């Protein structure tokens, strides 16, 4: 309650105290902030909306605040059941039993640069659900979304550790493919783009989407042509059971791993034959101490109470953000409204300032535009409500999201 009152005092001061968020040139990015009524969603979870004036015009925001100290309250990944799939936030909230959620990471939404290649719907960054790793990050040059500030990578995540505290972290894939006395580096795990010359592993968590997209583009150019030098093999019980010249599609049985190589990676995989012994090992290693039981990709905009240097101050859009404060015990989920009168949104720099003013010490920018969606569900009436107006006129199917769960 003390934290909520502190935020309310800060907001009240901003509403009545004149200009805030002035940029170095002195131009005002926000003149006023008007708060809606605070509404409880569940014990430890509150919703409210707000209006403000940003540099490009009026904006309307929707906020869920989560007290992770409340018994039974937790966060976890919302996803459609496989990495390479999409679903609306409301559907994922309904199916998982969450009481609220927002959309998450940027994802492989289109393949107009590669005619005939299927867009997978898979996310840009790493993901962990219920303590289990689902996928790793694509190369920086293969990502979708606005430009990232200096020093940020696709491996950056926001999540919750096994200690119950939220934090920013960075998840790096380390892994090997051991065969015929050789040890090859594993460069991908259930991701839509592999590094040039790399080998990637696909498991049953990937889903049924084609794996061809993984061999398109380069580490610095998403639109570069697909590699003409590819190879794929299936490993089950540490034995090669199938080989193919090109990446395939379809469900991967639990317990099997499909290895896809491109360029130099394909050359290495061609040395293996059906029946050969192959051992695949992979891990997602955090930079911070302690394992993460939930993680989702997103690029940091606020760290230790300070906006990152180099944030974009000119391009305004509808945006989604997640952040934490109070030593990782309070979590904030924010989605701007995409209604026609608010579609100008905010810049990434303004978003960082807003998250700081709301009480966050650390925050990330998530997928925005037509993806921005914030949903709550009445745990008694089982009714799901989309609180904002998605800018496309309806919910967009997305790769994943952040869900709020109540254990009773």
Summarize the structure.
With 408 residues, this protein is mainly β.
Q: Major β-sheet, in short? A: 9 strands, antiparallel
Number of strands: 28
Which regions have little confidence, pLDDT < 50, spanning 5+ residues? 1-30
User: Per the principal axes of the C-alpha atoms, what is the gross shape?
Assistant: globular
Average pLDDT for all residues: 92
Continuous helix count: 4
Distance between the termini: 22 Å
Describe this structure in words.
It is a single chain. The chain is mainly β and 408 residues long. Helices cover 10% and strands 38% of the residues. The chain has four helices and 28 strands. β5 and β6 (57-67) form a beta hairpin.
Task: Give the helix/strand layout.
Layout: H1 2-16, E1 20-22, E2 28-30, E3 33-35, E4 39-42, E5 45-54, E6 57-67, E7 73-78, H2 89-96, E8 100-103, E9 127-129, E10 132-135, E11 156-161, E12 166-179, E13 182-185, E14 188-189, E15 199-202, E16 230-236, E17 239-244, E18 256-262, H3 264-269, E19 278-286, E20 292-297, E21 299-303, E22 306-307, E23 320-325, E24 330-336, H4 348-358, E25 362-366, E26 374-378, E27 383-386, E28 401-406
Parallel strand pairs: 14-15
Antiparallel strand pairs: 1-2, 3-5, 4-5, 5-6, 6-24, 7-28, 8-26, 8-28, 9-10, 9-20, 11-12, 11-20, 12-13, 12-19, 15-18, 16-17, 16-18, 21-22, 21-25, 23-24, 23-25, 26-27
């Amino acid at each position: 309650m003390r934290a909520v009152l502190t935020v309310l005092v800060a907001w009240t001061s901003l509403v009545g105290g004149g200009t805030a968020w002035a940029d170095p040139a002195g131009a005002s990015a926000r003149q006023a902030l008007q708060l809606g009524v605070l509404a409880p969603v569940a014990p430890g979870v509150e919703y409210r909306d707000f209006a403000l004036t940003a540099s490009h015009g009026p904006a309307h925001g929707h906020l869920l605040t989560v007290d992770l100290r409340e018994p039974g309250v937790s966060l976890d990944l919302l996803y459609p059941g496989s990495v390479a799939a999409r679903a609306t936030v409301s559907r994922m909230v309904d199916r998982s039993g969450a009481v609220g959620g927002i959309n998450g990471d940027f994802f492989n939404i289109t393949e107009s640069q590669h005619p005939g290649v299927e867009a997978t719907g898979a996310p840009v960054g790493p993901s962990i659900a219920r303590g289990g790793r689902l996928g790793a990050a694509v190369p920086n040059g293969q990502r979708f979304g606005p430009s990232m500030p200096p020093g940020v990578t696709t491996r950056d995540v926001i999540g919750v550790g096994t200690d119950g505290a939220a934090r920013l972290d960075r998840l790096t894939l380390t892994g090997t493919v051991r065969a015929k006395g050789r040890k090859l580096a594993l460069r991908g795990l259930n991701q839509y783009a592999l590094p040039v010359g790399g080998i990637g592993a696909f498991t049953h968590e990937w889903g049924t989407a084609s794996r061809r997209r993984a061999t398109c583009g380069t580490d610095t150019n998403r639109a570069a042509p697909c590699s003409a030098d590819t190879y794929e093999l299936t490993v089950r019980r540490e034995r090669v059971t199938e080989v193919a010249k090109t990446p395939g599609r379809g469900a991967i049985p639990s317990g099997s791993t499909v290895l896809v190589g491109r360029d130099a990676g394909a050359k290495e995989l061609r040395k293996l034959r059906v029946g050969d012994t192959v051992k695949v090992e992979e891990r997602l290693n955090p930079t911070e101490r302690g394992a993460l039981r939930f993680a989702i990709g997103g690029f940091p905009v606020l760290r230790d109470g300070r906006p990152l240097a180099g944030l974009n101050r000119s391009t305004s859009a509808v945006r989604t953000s997640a952040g934490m404060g109070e030593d990782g015990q309070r979590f904030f989920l924010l989605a701007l409204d995409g209604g026609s009168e608010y579609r100008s949104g905010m810049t990434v720099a303004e978003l960082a300032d807003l998250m700081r003013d709301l009480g966050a010490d650390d925050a990330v920018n998530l997928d925005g535009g037509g993806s921005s969606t914030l949903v709550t569900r009445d745990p008694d009436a089982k009714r799901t409500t989309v609180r904002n107006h998605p800018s496309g006129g309806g919910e967009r199917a997305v790769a994943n999201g952040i869900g709020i769960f109540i254990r009773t």
